[in-house]
């Protein structure tokens, strides 16, 4: 980062067109939805106009991979909006700068890392849901499911799409939640049965819902935020909360150890847990870290919050590699066409 | 070795002049480029494939207390403990960089509610473990109660060995991809080469009308990313597809889709190679055949096919290589059908398992290198078919055959135009299939994943930089190989390096670049995450074809030019500037348009290397499709198509102008 900055600086000076650069710039890695980044950055700049955010956005899998790949030579200053399970992985690699942001005690403790000072702080919960296309459902005679177990019934064969947990954070939270809801053995049994009905696994977590919205599939296992967005855009879908409960993960914030500008990074993280910030998170997420902020989100199912499972993040993070390997061995590429 | 008795004049060695030194410095720079941009990254990747991770239980010790908290028993090594109860076998302890091992299982009477306490330590500072996600290491004893001890996990040790390959071949889900990739590549090759042969045959050997239009349409697929046919196939044959019933209940997501899409994007490559081969045929052979009263069928098998066989071989290998190394198409339309190139992406991006990604890369290199090596051998056997006495074949009109060929070429052209057309339609429809009204909403890339409109700008910058820098490097390299005298070994080695990129899949190159350039000890580390690394990887990825084009052009120039120039005591760069470059101008322009178009469409060479500031249009197509935003992906894909088409038209205009002006000498007055 330093060298690039030096070179960029040198070139700017050399060309002789020194533009008005903000006092500080932070490289912020994120897996937040692309359409919300500008809103967050603008809101932050209202309070801190001197700190410019340079976003690096990609899916959870990609950003996690990128961060791990850059372990010895971190390019990011801050991670703002990445799955807590991924941040736990970074923490165990010693990549996070522990920091207690100002006012951290006001957050719901569930949303704060257990170490003192915490390595990361949560922003909001992103919650699994089923997107069900009512038009295609009627056309294909596929009734709306009410539970996860419903999806294993023969009537859904070939009508369900879910994200591949190996590349998608949403996919992984589904799998880890099923293992927690049904227990390890029954969880895998459930997935064996579900696998028979899945028409394909997508690489991204929002794709199943978007594909349900466009009628490419009848049912997409995705997350509530994406479902609400598609519904607002006019898609003929219902967002269904399965009765057994739904998996979720936190979007969380952390400072990368070795940042060039710790002071600005801390300012950003301070701001990221303020009440104002949480009000912005609430635009898309029904559950946020700051108690008392959350208001109902349009098109969100009413019982979504109470159906959130008691998620064991440490289980998810420590068993991530094993679960993914087992999942890949069982389902990835096995649905090979008849030989 | 100098014999003082004989006069030194006996061993005349030309003295190296200033010119030669400049030339050698030149050669050194270009060779260094290929070495740094190709050989070293590939080496870094190979060594990554052999870097392994496993849990080394011998490095940890534990001491268990009694219920009252006293420690009467001595500490035990975890390895001994494991050997006693035989819980983990050696293969169980193989892991990847992110592997974690819970050790509570080693203690048969462990209960997290028990009051028993545990003292734990690693035997050296390099060995680390986690207690409740907290990283610890070193030989300080850490005392934990049972509940916390449950949360103690080990981190893997790194080492070297073949374990990654063992573990790869023990996983049928992964090895299945080898069969899938070979199968798809073989089937696509047979179909494409057959289709392209008859198309090229129609162009070369019939008198059908509109040949120019057909030729133009047949080369259109070169202008689009390989993902685009995948997107078109979704709209044509997907669950809401226009022609879904044509598939008779089969799904387009899988081998069918991959093969159709592969035929689309490899067709022009095969067609151009076969056309060249068919053009080089001697009309006298056909005359001889017909005067011997051979049937057209017999003539076809005894004259046409043998004459074109090297072209057919070459086309087959090129198509095979393109298909087996392509990543975009199977990613979009492959569904659950795994292929090697997609596996690399999944291992690296999805599972963050870089070692396994390197292993799959090495495996993908094998068929690609093999196809490349066979092709090289076959090409060497080719002898000149055209001699000075050859007569260029001129087809005679034949109404029956001409009509059949016209119908055939029309069908192929409709297939190509339909694929591109449906993408444009999809990009303009508001909400397929529920609201079919037209709108430009999908061009609002700012709210999509993939980097918005700036990714399109970046792609143009990348394409222009690649075209300019690439052409300069390639041309200089070709000049070194072709025109510099002496220094045989160096030149041969250079030629070999220049041929290598053809056999290296883009994904493999990209992954190799991560390993090599993201290493903080690498002096070139600063280019990581910038536009420079994208330019370098793209130039290197498309080096071989450009190099061959330049070498061919330079070969056409008589070596006497150099001799005359040096006898006139002119420095070589004057010759290059005043003669070589102007004469090679058509080739130079061809190289730049080739590099431009490929830089616009490539996904595989850059997908691991772009950063937010350097997001690219082709990658945006991939990412938008990935996120389920298929219509915007089609919109961006079409934008790439129009840009490339525009560049091609510009190229044609500039070429003809320059040829007119600077090449008057070519035309005999």
Task: Describe the structure concisely.
The complex is a heterodimer of chains A (339) and B (669). With 339 residues, chain A is an alpha/beta fold.
> What is the subunit organization of this protein?
heterodimer
The computed structural class of chain A is alpha/beta
Share of helical residues of chain A: 25-40%
Most residues in contact, chain pair and counts: A-B, 74 and 69 residues
Please list the strands of the largest sheet of chain B in the order they lie side by side: 3-2-6-9
**Percent of sequence in beta strands of chain A:** 15-25%
- The name CATH uses for the topology of the largest domain in chain B is MetI-like fold
Record field, number of beta strands of chain A: 10
- Globally, the shape of chain A reads globular
Give the rounded overall mean pLDDT of chain A. 87
Structure description:
The complex is a heterodimer of chains A (339) and B (669). Chain A is an alpha/beta fold and 339 residues long. Chain A folds into two domains: 2-125 and 251-297, Periplasmic binding protein-like II (D-Maltodextrin-Binding Protein, domain 2); 126-248 and 306-331, D-Maltodextrin-Binding Protein, domain 2 (3-Layer(aba) Sandwich). Helices cover 39% and strands 18% of the residues of chain A. In chain A, helix 2 (37-47) links the parallel strand 1 and strand 2 (51-57). The longest helix of chain A is centred in the N-terminal third of the chain and has 14 residues, at 2-15. Chain A is globular. Chain B is an alpha+beta fold and 669 residues long. Helices cover 60% and strands 7% of the residues of chain B. In chain B, a hairpin with a 3-residue loop joins strand 12 (429-431) and strand 13 (435-438). Chain B is globular and about 105 Å long. The model of chain B has no long low-confidence stretch (mean pLDDT 86). Chains A and B meet through helix 1, strand 2, helix 3, helix 4 and strand 7 of A and helix 5 and helix 12 of B.
């Amino acid at each position: 980062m330093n060298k690039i900055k030096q070179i960029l600086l040198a070139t700017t000076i050399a060309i002789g067109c020194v533009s008005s650069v903000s006092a500080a710039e932070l490289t912020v890695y994120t897996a937040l939805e692309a359409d919300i980044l500008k809103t967050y950055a603008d809101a932050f700049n209202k309070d801190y106009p001197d700190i410019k955010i340079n976003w690096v956005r990609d899916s959870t899998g990609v950003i996690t991979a990128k961060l791990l790949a850059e372990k010895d030579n971190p390019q990011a200053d801050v991670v703002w909006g990445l799955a807590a399970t991924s941040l736990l992985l970074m923490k165990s690699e010693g990549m996070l700068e522990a920091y207690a942001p100002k006012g951290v005690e006001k957050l719901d403790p569930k949303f704060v890392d257990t170490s003192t000072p915490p390595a990361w702080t949560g922003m909001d919960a992103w919650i699994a849901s089923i997107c069900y296309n009512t038009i295609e459902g009627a056309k294909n005679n596929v009734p709306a499911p009410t539970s996860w177990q419903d999806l294993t019934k023969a009537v859904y064969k070939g009508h369900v799409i879910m994200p591949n947990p190996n590349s998608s954070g949403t996919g992984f939270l589904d799998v880890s939640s099923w293992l927690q809801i049904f227990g390890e053995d029954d969880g895998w049994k459930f997935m064996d049965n579900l696998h028979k009905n899945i028409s394909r696994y997508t690489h991204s977590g929002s794709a199943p819902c978007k594909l349900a919205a466009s009628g490419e599939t009848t049912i997409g296992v995705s997350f509530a935020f994406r479902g609400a967005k598609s519904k607002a855009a006019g898609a003929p879908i219902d967002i269904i909360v399965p009765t057994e409960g739904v998996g979720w993960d936190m979007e969380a914030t952390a400072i990368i150890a070795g940042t060039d500008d710790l002071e600005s990074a801390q300012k950003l993280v301070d701001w990221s847990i303020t009440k104002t910030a949480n009000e912005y998170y609430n635009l898309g997420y029904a559950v946020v870290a700051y108690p008392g902020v959350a208001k109902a989100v349009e098109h969100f199912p009413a019982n979504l919050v109470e159906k959130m499972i008691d998620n064991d993040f440490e289980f998810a993070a420590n068993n991530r590699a094993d679960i993914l390997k087992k999942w890949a061995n069982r389902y990835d590429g096995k649905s090979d066409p008849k030989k | 070795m100098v014999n003082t008795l004989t006069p030194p004049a006996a061993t005349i060695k030309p003295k190296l002049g200033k010119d030669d030194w400049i030339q050698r410095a030149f050669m050194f720079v270009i060779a260094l480029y290929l070495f740094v941009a190709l050989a070293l990254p590939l080496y870094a990747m190979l060594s990554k494939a052999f870097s392994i991770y496993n849990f080394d239980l011998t490095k940890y010790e534990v001491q268990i207390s009694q219920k009252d908290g006293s420690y009467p028993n001595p500490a035990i090594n975890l390895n001994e403990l494991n050997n006693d109860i035989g819980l983990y076998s050696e293969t169980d302890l193989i892991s990847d960089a992110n592997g974690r091992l819970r050790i509570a299982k080693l203690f048969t009477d462990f209960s997290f509610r028990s009051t028993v306490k545990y003292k734990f330590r690693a035997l050296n500072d390099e060995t680390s473990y986690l207690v409740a996600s907290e990283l610890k290491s070193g030989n300080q004893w850490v005392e934990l109660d049972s509940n916390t001890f449950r949360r103690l996990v080990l981190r893997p040790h790194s080492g070297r060995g073949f374990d990654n390959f063992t573990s790869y071949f023990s996983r049928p889900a992964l090895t299945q991809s080898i069969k899938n990739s070979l199968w798809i590549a073989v089937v696509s090759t047979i179909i494409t080469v057959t289709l392209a042969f008859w198309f090229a045959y129609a162009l070369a050997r019939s008198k059908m009308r509109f040949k120019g239009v057909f030729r133009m349409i047949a080369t259109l697929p070169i202008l689009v990313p390989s993902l685009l046919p995948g997107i078109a196939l979704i709209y044509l044959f997907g669950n809401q597809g226009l022609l879904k019933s044509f598939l008779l209940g089969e799904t387009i997501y899988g081998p069918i889709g991959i093969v159709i899409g592969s035929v689309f994007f490899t067709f022009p490559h095969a067609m151009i190679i076969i056309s060249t081969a068919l053009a080089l045929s001697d009309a006298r052979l056909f005359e001889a055949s017909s005067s011997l009263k051979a049937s057209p069928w017999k003539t076809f098998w005894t004259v046409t096919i043998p004459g074109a066989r090297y072209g057919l071989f070459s086309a087959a290998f090129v198509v095979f290589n393109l298909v087996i190394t392509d990543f975009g198409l199977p990613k979009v339309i492959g569904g659950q059908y795994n292929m090697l190139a997609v596996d690399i992406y999944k291992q690296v991006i999805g599972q963050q398992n870089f070692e396994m990604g390197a292993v799959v890369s090495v495996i993908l290199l094998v068929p690609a290198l093999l196809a490349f090596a066979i092709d090289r051998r076959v090409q060497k056997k080719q002898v000149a078919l055209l001699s000075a006495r050859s007569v260029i074949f001129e087809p005679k009109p034949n109404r029956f055959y001409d009509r059949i060929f016209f119908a055939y070429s029309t069908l192929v052209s409709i297939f190509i135009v339909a694929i591109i057309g449906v993408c444009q339609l999809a990009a303009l429809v508001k909400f397929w299939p529920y609201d079919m009204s037209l709108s430009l909403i999908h061009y609002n890339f700012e709210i999509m994943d993939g980097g918005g409109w700036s990714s399109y700008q970046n792609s143009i910058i990348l394409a222009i930089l690649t075209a300019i820098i690439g052409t300069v490097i390639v041309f200089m390299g070709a000049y070194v190989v072709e025109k510099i005298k002496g220094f045989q070994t160096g030149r041969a080695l250079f030629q070999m390096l220049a041929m290598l990129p053809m056999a290296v899949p883009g994904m493999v190159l990209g992954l190799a670049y991560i390993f090599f350039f993201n290493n903080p000890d690498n002096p070139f580390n600063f280019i990581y995450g910038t536009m420079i690394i994208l330019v370098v990887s793209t130039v290197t990825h498309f080096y071989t074809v450009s190099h061959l084009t330049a070498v061919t052009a330079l070969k056409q120039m008589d070596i006497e030019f150099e001799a005359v120039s040096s006898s006139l005591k002119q420095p070589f760069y004057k010759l290059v500037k005043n003669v070589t470059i102007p004469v090679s101008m058509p080739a130079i322009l061809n190289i730049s348009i080739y590099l431009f178009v490929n830089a616009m469409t490539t996904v595989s060479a850059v997908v691991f290397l772009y950063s937010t500031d350097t997001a690219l249009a082709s990658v945006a197509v991939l990412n938008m499709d990935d996120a389920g935003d298929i219509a915007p992906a089609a919109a961006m894909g079409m934008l790439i198509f129009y840009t490339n088409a525009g560049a091609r038209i510009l190229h044609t205009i500039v070429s003809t102008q320059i040829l007119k002006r600077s090449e008057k000498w070519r035309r005999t007055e």
